Amino acid sequence: MLRxxxxxxxxxxxxxxxxxxxxxxxxxxxxxNPISFYFGADLSYVNEMEDCGAIYKNTMGTVEDVYKLFKxxxxxxxxxxxxxxxxxxxxxxxxxxxxxxxxAKAQGMKVLLDFHYSDTWADPDKQEIPAAWANExxxxxxxxxxxxxxxxxxxxxxxxxxxxxxxxQVGNEINGMILQQGELVWPIDWERNSYLLNKGIEAVxxxxxxxxxxxxxxxxxxxxxxxxxxxxxxxxxxxxxxxWIGLSYYPxxxxxxxxxxxxxxxxxxxxxxxxxxxVETAYPFTFTNxxxxxxxxxxxxxTNNIPAxxxxxxxxLNQLHTIIKNAGGEGLIYWEPAWISTSCSTLWAxxxxxxxxxxxxxxGKATLGITYYNRAFNx
Length: 379
What we know:
By secondary structure, this protein is α/β, with parallel strands linked by helices. The protein has one domain (36-377): Alpha-Beta Barrel (TIM Barrel), CATH 3.20.20.80. It contains nine helices and eight strands. It has helices at residues 12-15, 46-51, 66-73, 94-106, 140-160, 190-211, 224-236, 262-272, 310-327, and strands at residues 38-42, 77-82, 110-115, 167-170, 216-222, 244-248, 275-280, 331-335. The protein has an eight-stranded parallel beta sheet with strand order 7-6-5-4-3-2-1-8. Its EC number is 3.2.1.89. Residues 1-19 form the signal peptide.
């Protein structure tokens, strides 16, 4: 359903004057203190879920704006994905993303913008080139120019709306070479891959300089074990101008269980002298399915004997938080905590494939897991 968006612009500094958390604390002269740890939520699905009838309740059962709800719990960062021209959906396009960023900034939260450089999901198994760029797939220089211009123009448009993100992710789960068609080609053609990724990085640096606003660059790999070889190959091939290592960490798909994952995180930080954030993780609070869409998180998602309960979900997040900090990392983002079951459909089925791993139960009430964000008040 097409939506007419009314985006209310609020000054970020006004919204960020709340000094209750390290996320948005201010000094006496009004300058903002740096964030010591990012407590994040990927809320890319929220606008769609709300259009599908979803309502969100806080831990007391009171219906509340979901962005306000996360902010009040302690979240200080919202991640949002951007697809190039997703003709199959009205969401995750520029207008949808601008609405998400506006809502996040209205609550004083920072924003991580995730460029997929695709018209659909980009992940370790698929890096499908946008249809509009397909004719240039074998012309690396022309493709690099398209990527640069798209990145720059998108950020410039956001800047004109006072919606520049604080962190930009150049690609999503880019284990394989970006901008391909169909089945991924291995091994990675690093001459092509490094050229394209560096063009994206250059665009972020250029808009940051032109707008006189700091914007960090993040490169995102799925699973820590893949980060070990990928960043070695990337830096050997001239990809060095980035600020953050972003990782997806789901124990069900990783070689490392929770008790082991601190080692690769620390290795990445110490080897490359970059900041590190887990930008995707989640944990089930039940194995009961709320709808006909098969849930992705099953029994293999469990780790460290942590059960699939609301308390188990909270325990997982608290333990992972401690591990990240002990390794020297600086952030944890929960992936799609608000992708609850509705009457709408995905590409595959009606409902949500994540309803047992969100931070809301089947009645839309926040689970115990959402109180993980309360740690922001004390750190």
